[in-house]
Design brief:
- Helices cover 37% and strands 27% of the residues.
- The chain is built from nine helices and 13 strands.
- A hairpin with a 2-residue loop joins strand 8 (164-169) and strand 9 (172-177).
C-alpha cells in the first residue's frame, strides 16, 4: 500500500496506532477499482461463454401475447442453433420473481425503474389508442383525451394506472379517468372486443400494428401520444452468466435488430 501511495502521490489510508481508515482519495480509488474488477470479471465470463457450448434446461418467462406473436416463431430456429438446449417457456402477464420461481430469463415490456436485475433492451413498442371503423361510425371519434369519458372503453387490468390514461399532446400532458364498460387482464381480449366494434382500446403497437395497417382498427388522436416502453430481456446477475442465457439474448437482439422491430 505504501508503494502504491508513493506511485500515486496521494495518501490512501489514515493510519493511527488503533485503526486504519480510507481517506477521501482512498475511497474513490477503492470504488473505481471495484468497478474495474467487476467489468474485468464480466469480460472474462463473456469470452469463456463464447467458447463454451450451450446446454441444459433454459427456463424463460414472457408476456402472453408477445410470447405468442413474436417469440413462439423464433424458438425453432434457436433450438436448431443450440441443439443441446431444452426450452421451458412460460407465458404469463403477471410480474414473476426470477430468482424465487427459478427462471433464467424473463422478457418484460415496461419502463424499467431501479432493479437488482440486469436488463438488455431488445426492441421498443408504444401504446396506441384505437377503435374499429363501425364503432367510430356509430359514436364518432374523440378529438381530445377528455372526450374519452363519454365513450365505451375497454380497459386492460394490468395497467399500473388502471383506468387513468395518460397522454402527451401539443399543449403538454393530460390525464383522463376513463369509465370502462369492459375490464380484462388479457390484451388479446381487448383487441378482439375492439375489432368487434365494442369500444376504444389503448394497447401496444406490437399487438395492434397489423390491424392498423389493414384498416381493421383506426388510430385515434395521433397527435396525443401515450406511453412508450422498452422490450427487455432481464436476468438475475451479470456475474457468471451461463452460455445458454448469453446466447439466447444475443439471438433475440440480432433477430429484432434485423427485423427493425419498433412497432
Amino acid at each position: 500500500m505504501v508503494e502504491l501511495e508513493k506511485r500515486l502521490a496521494v495518501r490512501l489510508l489514515q493510519r493511527t496506532t488503533r485503526r486504519l481508515s480510507l481517506t477521501e482519495e482512498g475511497q474513490l480509488f477503492y470504488a473505481r477499482s471495484k468497478e474495474l474488477l467487476a467489468e474485468l470479471s464480466e469480460a472474462e465470463d463473456e469470452i469463456t461463454s463464447r467458447n463454451a457450448a450451450a446446454s441444459g434446461l433454459l427456463r424463460i418467462n414472457a408476456p402472453f401475447t408477445f410470447g405468442v406473436l413474436h417469440l413462439a416463431p423464433l424458438w425453432g430456429e434457436f433450438l436448431q442453433q443450440q441443439p443441446k438446449v431444452q426450452l421451458d417457456v412460460t407465458l404469463a402477464d403477471r410480474l414473476v420473481d426470477l430468482v424465487e420461481e427459478g427462471y433464467d430469463v424473463a422478457i418484460r415490456i415496461a419502463a424499467l425503474g431501479n432493479s437488482t436485475l440486469v436488463s438488455t433492451r431488445l426492441a421498443t413498442t408504444r401504446l396506441v389508442l384505437c377503435a374499429a371503423p363501425p364503432y367510430l361510425q356509430r359514436h364518432g371519434a374523440p378529438t381530445h383525451p377528455s372526450q374519452l369519458t363519454g365513450h365505451a372503453v375497454i380497459s386492460y387490468s394490468y395497467f399500473s394506472t388502471r383506468d387513468e390514461w395518460h397522454f402527451q399532446g401539443p399543449h403538454g400532458p393530460v390525464s383522463v379517468k376513463t369509465q370502462p364498460c369492459f375490464h380484462t387482464n388479457n390484451g388479446d381480449t381487448c383487441r378482439a372486443a375492439a375489432l368487434a366494434g365494442q369500444g376504444i382500446i389503448l394497447q401496444p403497437s406490437f399487438l395492434v400494428g397489423a390491424d392498423l395497417a389493414s384498416g381493421a382498427l383506426v388510430e385515434l388522436m395521433p397527435e396525443w401520444s401515450a406511453d412508450e416502453f422498452g422490450i427487455y430481456a432481464v436476468y438475475p446477475t451479470r456475474q457468471h452468466v451461463s452460455p445458454k442465457v448469453r446466447l439466447l439474448i444475443a439471438f433475440l437482439k440480432e433477430h429484432f435488430a434485423q427485423s427493425g422491430a419498433r412497432w
